[in-house]
Design a protein that fits this description.
Elements (H helix, E strand, L loop, with lengths): L8 H15 L7 E6 L15 E7 L5 E11 L2 E13 L9 H9 L3 E3 L1 H8 L13 E4 L2 E7 L5 H4 L5 H19 L4 E10 L8 E12 L5 E9 L5 E11 L18
Antiparallel strand pairs: 1-4, 1-8, 2-3, 3-4, 5-6, 6-7, 7-9, 8-11, 9-10, 10-11
Helix pairs in contact: 1-5
Length: 263
């Protein structure tokens, strides 16, 4: 982000889920609710350790609220900065993919963007995070692309499953926003993330980002429902009510060729 390495939102949730599993091993965490990422966590240049703090609180509905913080010490004063917050709990009722909307999106005439161009010019992240593996197909209703789970052992994939699948789906939504609106947006909130039972074994999937509308009252905000489907078109993961925000305040602009209004 602006030439700084930051901790991806998906890794923040993975860190919190792993810490929660150690603290409350009996807890079921098939769903993540009200995830919020209020500030980036900038990683140290050249690697190194960071002083991270995880806090947990059992809520009245028996879900567990979790926060990821960094500790800042200046002289005799210690401050805590929150970088991610969400609630973990069982899936009360699993949603079903909107089959008609997905079929309509797949049949529509699309603007296609090659993965190499996505990661060279639109979403310039490190190689480990380049997991869109087919041309992204962009239509007025949203986008779709094949994605890969990336590299990682069982420790990284548990307990929420491969984090790079949802991360690649966020990249797809980011590319769609650049094409449709001319702004570069990144995920700042998720209303609900649902994890399905087959997620740990999935490596290559299809991401579908369905556009749900936007707002410009306090910066450009776009909303998506994201579905990750396996080769049999069964859901692996869903992220509903994903809020994408132009965090640069308009300073960061996409290249002209991607913008739909450029022709």
């Amino acid at each position: 982000m602006e030439n700084r390495a930051v901790l991806p939102a998906v890794i923040s949730m993975q860190i919190l889920a792993a810490a929660l599993s150690r603290e409350y091993p009996e807890r079921c965490i098939d769903s993540v609710y009200d995830a919020f990422f209020p500030r980036f966590l900038v990683l140290p240049q050249g690697g190194g350790n960071m002083d991270l703090v995880s806090t947990f609180e059992v809520c009245h509905d028996d879900s567990v609220s979790a926060s990821l913080l960094t500790r800042c010490r200046r002289r005799s004063i210690t401050r805590y900065l929150e970088h991610a917050k969400c609630r973990f709990g069982p899936a009360d009722k699993r949603p079903h993919p909107p089959a008609k909307a997905i079929q309509k999106l797949r049949r529509a005439v699309s603007f296609d963007v090659d993965p190499q161009r996505i990661y060279n010019e639109l979403v310039p992240f490190g190689k480990a995070f380049q997991n869109i593996v087919s041309p992204a197909r962009l239509t007025a209703a949203g986008g779709t692309a094949d994605i890969h789970a990336g590299q990682g052992g069982d420790d990284l994939f548990r307990p929420l499953g491969p984090p790079f699948l949802l991360d690649a789906a966020f990249h797809l939504a980011c590319v769609w926003g650049q094409w449709h609106t001319g702004f570069v947006t990144f995920p700042v909130a998720i209303r609900r993330r649902v994890l399905f039972g087959n997620r740990l074994s999935c490596r290559r999937c299809c991401a579908v980002a369905l556009y749900q509308g936007g707002r410009s009252d306090s910066g450009t905000r776009l909303f998506f429902d994201i579905w990750i489907l396996n080769g049999a078109h069964k859901p692996v993961e869903a992220a509903l009510g994903v809020e994408m925000l132009d965090v640069s305040g308009g300073r960061r602009k996409p290249p002209q060729w991607i913008r739909r209004d450029s022709g």
